[in-house]
Amino acid sequence: MVQELRADDPRRVGDYTLLHRLGQGGMGSVYLGRTRAGRPVAVKVARAELVAEPDFRERFRREIGMARQVGGFWTGAVVDADPEAERPWLATEYISGPSLQQAVVEAGALAEPAALRLAAGLAEALAAIHKTGLVHRDLKPSNVLLDRDGPRVIDFGIAHAVQATALTSPGDFFGTPGFLSPEQISGAQVGPASDIFALGAVLVFATTATGPFGEGDVATLLYRTVHSEPDISGVPDAARKIAAMCLQRDPRRRPSPQELLDHLTGHGSSTSARWLPQPVHTLIDQHQTALRTALDVPTVADGQLGRTHDEQTAPATEPASQEAARFRTSRTQTLLWACVTTLVAFTISGGGYLLFPFGFPTGGIYTFTPLMIIAALLFGAAARPRHTLDVAADGLRFSRGRQSGFSSWSTIARTRVIGGARASVVVWLTPGTAQPHPSGYRPYHGGLRIYPIRGSFRRRRREARELRAALAWYSPHTYDSSP
């Protein structure tokens, strides 16, 4: 979780304002930063002793260049870096979720379906990393962040640059005992197979809450890794087979990420949108709430989106509330148009039946009748129940007349703002979730339209833009930006 900045911590790095300290790793200190447009990023600043190494900047530059090429769904992307700064730094996508370490400690070990989904996500992440020629070298539970749609692997792309330096004194090493491969400990050549060994160790931890080599001091864990067989007796059957494949002492006998994915597909790993247990979803919600608090987003006016108190650093599309952004359908404009249409109908027709009881002027009836039909439709639309939608930190609150409903973000698989004649906010719930919505909402390709976007063309376009910004801000991982 976030900590206050220390007196000696920088307040700004590159174009990023540093807000809080997130922790410290092998490279240096990690901070929660904010872009000039208001997006959160994780900023890692190198330790001073690393900078003193003769070739560190060149290695850092090369590793970051390769890390920028890493794609895939399950990695935290590198968005910026400066190897020439006084203390080199890099900025990565900020993922607002608990680490696997925190989730297991606070919510317990994962059940087998979730563990297999975790393994598949990690295998895809390693495939993307290895494709660029990188090796992570420090895959461990604290470097795996959990999100609603799958795991994310962080802190890749700097391991080689850091490991290649003389970190401190002879005998020191880079990595985490219990998750290091035997070849990393013995000083043999390290390749992609080392990451596969670490994946197996992470899988054991996820399902048993302890690593494959137990607990103990550094020397004990290193000795067990090189000389003892891993303990995978408590791992569920299908996950145990995967772990055993990965934890082979000989790196040549370990599978590649693609082979792992083939094996996991054959064993029916979970494809459910809701892959994590409820306690972990609660942790994700807590992290997202803490992020909004850390970014210091102020209060919103009813139905409005606006800038933060700092006009220079906040985005124009950011919801100006950490509580909720409220939207309401307006009936005033519809009622006004109904009255105007009625008045125009009577005026054009010469007053209609009231002024000409024995008949219309020539052609009057052909104008009066369609205009009155339009007016009747507008009066009917104005009489429809009013819709309200609150996009909030904990989920979506919506009402239709006197009926109301609520869906927390943990029960929502996808949100989308659709355009066209029936522009609406549509939600898709995770499988198995009971429908909490009031009656009268129309279905849309498996989802429900919970809020109609009405009014003039300019109003609809403005409100659609504001709704998209609110959904992307409060739940970026469920928001579908498709038009």
How would you explain this protein's 3D organization?
The chain crosses the membrane at residues 335-358, 364-383. This is Protein kinase domain-containing protein. Pfam families: Pkinase. By secondary structure, the protein is an alpha+beta fold. It folds into three domains: 12-289, Transferase(Phosphotransferase) domain 1 (Transferase(Phosphotransferase), domain 1, Orthogonal Bundle), CATH 1.10.510; 324-329 and 385-480, PH-domain like (Roll), CATH 2.30.29; 332-382. Helix content is 36%, strand content 18%. It contains 15 helices and 17 strands. It has helices at 48-51, 56-67, 100-107, 112-131, 159-163, 182-186, 192-208, 218-227, 237-246, 257-266, 278-294, 332-348, 352-355, 364-382, 457-474; strands at 12-13, 16-24, 28-34, 40-46, 78-82, 89-93, 144-147, 150-153, 324-328, 387-392, 395-400, 403-408, 412-418, 424-429, 443-444, 447-452, 479-480. The strands form four sheets. Strands 1-2-3-4-6-5 form a six-stranded antiparallel β-sheet. Strand 5 (78-82) and strand 6 form a beta hairpin. Helix 4 runs antiparallel to helix 10 (257-266). The model is unreliable at 165-172 and 297-322 (pLDDT under 50).
